[in-house]
Amino acid sequence: MPIHLLGLVLALAAAVHAPADARFNARFDSRFTSKTLRFDYFHSGIAKEEHVSLDGLRLEGDWPGSRVRLLDDSNLGKYLFEVIDLGTNQVIWSRGFSSIYGEWETTGEAGAGVWRTFHESMRFPEPRGRVQIVLKKRAADGGFREIYSTLADPASRFVDRSPVPAVGTVWSVFESGPPAVKVDLLILGDGYTAAEKGKFHADVKRLTDALFATEPFKGHRSDFNVRAIDVPSPASGVTDPRTATWRKTPLGLAYNAFDSERYMLTFADQAVREIAAQAPYDTLVLLSNSRKYGGGGIYNLWNTAAVDSAESAYLLVHEFGHSFAGLGDEYYTSQVSYETLNPAGSEPWEPNVSALLDPKNVKWKDLVTAGTPLPTPWNQEDYDKVVLAYEKKRRELREKGAPEEQMEALFQEIREKTTPMLRAEKYFGRVGAFQGASYEAKGLYRPEADCIMFSRNPKTYCGVCARAIERAIGMFTE
């Protein structure tokens, strides 16, 4: 055989037998640099109309995400972000996500025609050449429809290449390996003064321990890196309009989002991104130095939690289920600001909520316990009477400005009353389809009688939620 043909054969054989990760990494290196590009944009509209406009492109540090799982096949999120190679017209990177705007457009304010604008960002590996970036939105039939598209040139002089400003100090909680093959969790604190740095470190350790004491995170601890950034605030605490508490904090965390008294969000997206860009991260946790019960979580954005609440560990674990794995709320008795979160007759995208349009093919049918009827009967009427009475009492206490000790005592009463009720259910601990989920008492179903996504009672996720979390972990480690 001629030497040049022998060389070709050996090269082909080496390519065939090369480890899969090496081949995928070679594909990544041929299409992307090692840096991170951030697409900043404005999302504006009302319930029946929305617009997206470019704010800018920002170069960040090294790309921390997987170099293998470039395309998102999870089918999660209200929106889908795609990066398309102009030469081949192929999608070379994609991620599903949800947003504050996507929640706000379902509120009464948006339905009344009040226009609002929210800043949003999507981070992706920096392409080696010009690409098309596309935003798509989930339609009622479950598919995605394009709502925005633009060309992006990483070499353009309009890309912001200024150094990421140093704000605070980055420190490691624990690290298990290189960012490219681990889930990189970054924790930021808001409302901590410089003198409270020690408290922030203690809160981070306590709540990180709580997260990784909970399955399936416990069994996957080695798949995570956890880092934090000390970000000093000028005053202790965060904004709470209902108690006339106003704070100017670096992250802008505040209670009363969408006029829901315990919903904690920030609308300072760009400020958060600039601070977070100092460290590698795939997922963000924002801790509020406050006691009032409150938090929030939005898929592939971040989650928030009040660190001094007696329920802080639950808040972190529950809200992280939203932001990291796209889990939906399974409760339905608490007041929320949403009015049309899931269109009638459509299947929710969240992996743990179903409209049960086809009971024989519920999305988690492979996990349904043998002999469990669908829908699965449970004593919903009795449960609702108890919980709704407590919700009424909770609202009355809030209106009177009751101290947080009373609110926490009430939560404990609810737990002591409802835990034995749910555990006494005939199908408790089995996967089925239990009516009542995602803020709807009827028409939507959850997988088990109880779960961290349903109540503050259990210490574990149900089987369906646990699997969704493991799949999310795989997006960064496989």
Describe this structure in words.
Strand 6 (131-138) and strand 7 (144-152) form a beta hairpin. Helix content is 27%, strand content 25%. Residues 2-16 have low confidence and may be disordered. The longest helix has 20 residues, at 380-399. The protein has 10 helices and 16 strands. It is an alpha/beta fold and 478 residues long. The chain has helices spanning 3-17, 20-31, 100-104, 108-111, 197-211, 269-276, 312-325, 380-399, 404-423, 463-477; strands at 32-46, 49-62, 79-85, 91-97, 116-127, 131-138, 144-152, 159-160, 169-174, 183-190, 224-230, 283-288, 295-298, 302-306, 434-437, 440-446.
Reported CATH architecture of the largest domain: 3-Layer(aba) Sandwich
Q: Tell me the number of helical segments per DSSP (H or I, 4 or more residues long).
A: 10
Largest sheet: 6 strands, mixed
Q: Give a count of the beta strands, DSSP E runs of length 2 or more.
A: 16
In total, the number of domains comes to: 3
Residue share in β-strands: 25-35%
> Helicity, in percent?
25-40%
User: Class of the largest domain in CATH?
Assistant: Alpha Beta
Large-scale geometry: globular
Poorly predicted spans: 2-16
Average pLDDT figure: 93
Provide the fold topology.
Blueprint: H1 3-17, H2 20-31, E1 32-46, E2 49-62, E3 79-85, E4 91-97, H3 100-104, H4 108-111, E5 116-127, E6 131-138, E7 144-152, E8 159-160, E9 169-174, E10 183-190, H5 197-211, E11 224-230, H6 269-276, E12 283-288, E13 295-298, E14 302-306, H7 312-325, H8 380-399, H9 404-423, E15 434-437, E16 440-446, H10 463-477
Parallel strand pairs: 2-8, 10-11, 10-12, 12-14
Antiparallel strand pairs: 1-2, 1-5, 3-4, 3-6, 6-7, 9-11, 13-14, 15-16
Helix pairs in contact: 5-7, 8-9
